[in-house]
Amino acid sequence: MIQLVLLRHGESISNRDGYFTGWNDVALSHRGEHQAEQAGRLLKEAGCEFDICFTSELRRATDTSRIVLSAMGLDGLTTRQSWRLNERHYGALEGVHRINAIGKFGIWPVLSPQLRFTAVPPPLGPDDARCPRNQPRYSDVDKNELPLAESMQQTHSRVLPYWQETIVPEILRGKRVLVVSHRHVLRSLMMQLDGLSVSQLMKLSIATGRPLVYNLDHELGPVQHYYADRQSA
Question: Does the global pTM surpass 0.90?
Fold first, then answer.
């Protein structure tokens, strides 16, 4: 049996305060830090061990991974960051309060990207400071690959190659893998693992700070999955 653990970062200050976040690089809230520490304790108590951790470029995920691994006594564990594991890009909605976004853009441009797999939020202008193409941290990435906004479909297309080409080979080498990322990225991975339909994906909810344990067969088919604090499928 192969074990893989997926973990959505702890609550961020934007989660707490009702802002669209996406690639906006915000900190964990105090509650989020506590959730991360609790996740690490749960994983340690469950007997989980890891050889490698994958996470995004965003601090709410990297801080969560650091706190989790420290709580498990795995401070020196190899951790690989990638922009491909960043949250879905919410375009011009990023950093905007959800209520204010409706007033600025209208209800359907705000709601449809949350309800429809192919719907794209209002995009950023290419000169906007929030645009990843204008941020030094992404200077090594082909600008044509960096989004101005993403549908869930585009997010899935961005994440899938990293899963197939980078994470899966480590699992097949026998590495015990932890992925600490974001809501839409983890939904995308679950769509791949569980063979979910678009309709099932769009209804899928993933709790912050709760480790989701997958037991996989040797072809990476899911035998069962469960939150570590419930220990049930």
Answer: yes
